[in-house]
Amino acid sequence: MAEKKVYQAELMVLVVTIIWGLGFPITKIAVNNGFSPNTIMVGRFLTASIILSIVFRKHLRRITMNTIVFGIITGIFLFLGFYFQTVGNVYTTATKNGFITQLNIVFVPYLYYLFFKKKVDIYNIISVIVAVVGLFILAYTKGAGFTEFNKGDLFTLICAIMVAFNLVTNSYFQKKYDLSPIAFTIVTMYLAAFLSLIAMFTFDTIPAITIANVWPLLFLGVFNTALGFLVQSYALKISKPTRISLIVSLESLFSAIGAVLILNDVLTLNVVVGGLLIITGILITEAKPFKKYKKSPL
Fold first, then answer.
1. Residue 298 counted as domain residue
2. Cα dihedral value 228, 229, 230, 231, nearest 10
């Protein structure tokens, strides 16, 4: 029965990973519908914050001053990560946006060294080399060669760095101050929604909102953010984090498939090769394929 629950949880994470992958072309649809990056983020984070507050209303009483202070710091990285991802999506393809965003996984071990003094191993070094080579091939522009990044690719690379900071500060503050994970996440999401609202009213012109053009924002808020968090939190309690990470690493692959099916994106040879190298880098740092693991006595 326990094994069955693990498989069910991992299947749910796989479904959510597919939804996360589809989030890249759906964000592109929102942009094409006339929504600016900040407006898209308001729809995403405000919707998710309200849903999570309702589902986890009992956890709101666990919000302390530390939760608020450190949630604000982490929330800034969350906002910046998704801001640069969304802006990047405006100037590059959804496929490249998805692959480059996944680089955050190979950056995380280096930030863990800064925050937790956890040593970087040979697999982390190999993975970042393979992934960066993949990035250069992916960002290849005919006529400009490997030396010139598309503006959207550069913004997405900044997004990957900000997401890595968000993940590590999230872990660091929760462990150091023993914070409630759910309460902490809700604070970070409300902070991201608040910053998005300020930016939206300051810089964006909001188009006429109809059911036909607003659905991508609701999809991103309900499924990509709120449902994604719920499923991932549940799965992490039942399955091993390494197994969940490996499933989630397929997100960029599903983003490419979604971009082809939904947006008719053309997968060029450099995008395919570069994307596969980035995925390979992620798998090396997550699975450590040549490492000998001790068998568990259980």
1. no
2. 50
